[in-house]
TrEMBL record:
InterPro entries: NDK-like_dom, NDK-like_dom_sf, Nucleoside_diP_kinase, Nucleoside_diP_kinase_AS. This is Nucleoside diphosphate kinase. The keyword Cell cycle does not apply. It comes from Thiomicrorhabdus heinhorstiae. Homotetramer. Keywords: ATP-binding, Cytoplasm, Kinase, Magnesium, Metal-binding, Nucleotide metabolism, Nucleotide-binding, Phosphoprotein, Transferase. The lineage of its organism: Bacteria, Pseudomonadati, Pseudomonadota, Gammaproteobacteria, Thiotrichales. It is an enzyme of class 2 (transferase). The gene is ndk. It is found in: Cytoplasm.
Amino acid sequence: EVERTFSIIKPDAVTRNLIGSILQRLESNGLSVVASKMIRLDREQAEGFYAEHKGRDFYEPLIEYMISAPVIVQVLQGEDAITVNRRVMGVTDPAKAEEGTIRADFALSVRENSVHGSDSVASAEREIAYFFAPEELCERD
Ligand code: CMP
């Protein structure tokens, strides 16, 4: 089934000029960009986005990191986009990620892990709506 998922190219990747390398991995695995923008998150936006993690020990440093430099927020579309994106990213901790995944190859640490991807249809819908108005999503085949 054709799905949409939400993706972030995170500060550690943007600052190291890895946007193109990461998009190459995503696009070559059948994920098409249907919306994209570069933004510098403010604290309120970052805290709202990661509200489910509030209270965890990694929450504050995560927020500081996410506002430390610009990010690319984007919507990816493709067959089973949510699952495909998660497979191409690899697991959260780059030390545990399979070789050939974005996180294994590019991420610096479990926090500075280069990319975010929605983990379910419900999160994808929430996360897309958090950053994009419906009319900002482009129709693609
Ligand atoms: P993400 O997939 O964006 O979802 C939550 C983020 O919190 C995660 O990627 C990491 O950037 C960060 N994170 C998750 N677990 C840890 C952890 N144990 N230590 C530090 N950062 C974490």
